[in-house]
Amino acid sequence: MDIRMRILKAVLLTLFGYGLFLVVLSFILKVMGRPIKKIWTRYLTWFIIIPPFLLPLLYSKYLFQAIFLFLSILLFREYANVVGLWKDRGYVTVCYIEIVFCYFPIFLNRFGFFQVIPIYLIVLVLLVPIIRGEYKHMIQKSCLAMLGVTYFGWFLSHVAFMRNIDGGIGYIFYLFILVISNDAGSYLSGKIFGRTPLVPKISPKKTNEGFVGGIILVIFFSFLFASFTPEFTIFHRIMLALVISVGGTCGDLVMSFIKRDLGLKDFGRVLPGHGGLLDRFDSLIFVSPLFFHLVNLLYSFVE
Predict the structure, then answer these.
(1) Average of pLDDT values for 9-20?
(2) Core vs surface per residue 261-298: b (16+ CB within 10 A) or e
(3) Closest by alpha carbon to 51, among 19, 107, 7?
(4) Number of domains the chain contains
């Protein structure tokens, strides 16, 4: 069977299986008097999130990469709004241009250029105060801009670059399914078994039990969907699962400490049951370059 059809079949079966599991779990928790709020809202939102990414992934490389460019811009926009950078239109405009610049080597399939992009991003941001002849508040604005374009532009664009390589569809699907399983496993395990806070000052609701539950589910799915990355050895599969699970949790905590510092609960309300785009894609952003470069180190899929 063609990999595209296999992925479509896997997604539909996973959504069906997860929905069936939630039916049983909801019933048990309701009997126990411990219902989980918004569990069905979170589940149904996936039917909105998945198609715009899955179909271009399978059938159009350039559309998939363009969607990720657009997503990077939206994520930066959400970030700029909450940290106050949006007030400086000049900086924001430069950052938008830089994010587009991040994707040029991807559309051209130039890996060497792609690797050194952060150097140019930093240089261009540091030139802004010089060109404007200003210095007040420039350190703060420059640092916020460099973090924004590097994190939401270059970090996330690794997913788009993977679409250029042989077997890239399988790698991306594998990454997506493990990141999602980590989020789902951590969320459900934390709600059911959570007792001990993981990092209470940053994310009071995230627990050690949820963290372990996420790891277990990621390892399980890494073997369940092994056929999409047949070259991975058992050891490498477990190692990558741990990197994705731990890295995904760190990505969540990175956005959490930003929210705590700013006094926010969520970055927005665009995705029912999930919050803003940053709340949904925080794990993927952090994990993408880790997965990309580790797999490339192990299997040299791009020179």
Answers:
(1) 93
(2) eeebeebbeebebbbbbbbbbbbbbbbbbbbbebbbee
(3) 7
(4) 1
Residue 133 class from Cβ within 10 Å (0-12 exposed, 13-18 middle, 19+ buried)? exposed
User: Cβ neighbours of residue 134 under 8 Å, at least 6 residues apart?
Assistant: none
Structure tokens at 201: 């000052």
**Tokens at residue 19, please?**
């929905």
**Is the pLDDT reported for residue 259 higher than 90?**
no
C-alpha 206: how far from chain center: 18
CB of 276 closer than 8 Å to CB of 269: yes
Whether the CB-CB separation of 209 and 189 falls below 8 Å is answered with yes
pTM given for the model = 0.93
- pLDDT tens for residues 153-192? 999 999 999 999 999 999 999 999 999 999 999 998 988 8
Task: Find the mean pLDDT for residues 245-270.
Answer: 87
Contact 163, 61 (CB under 8 A): yes
In the chain, at which residue ranges do the beta strands (DSSP E only) sit? 197-199, 203-207
Cβ atoms of residues 187 and 36 within 8 Å: no
Residue 7, both tokens: 């992925």
* Residue 291 belongs to domain spanning: 3-299
- Tokens linked to 208: 């050690």
Q: Counting Cβ atoms within 10 Å, is residue 36 exposed (0-12), middle (13-18) or buried (19+)?
A: middle
Helix (H, G, I), strand (E, B) or coil at 198: strand
Give the Cβ contact number of residue 170 at 10 Å. Answer: 19
Q: What's the sign of the alpha-carbon dihedral 186, 188, 191, 196?
A: negative
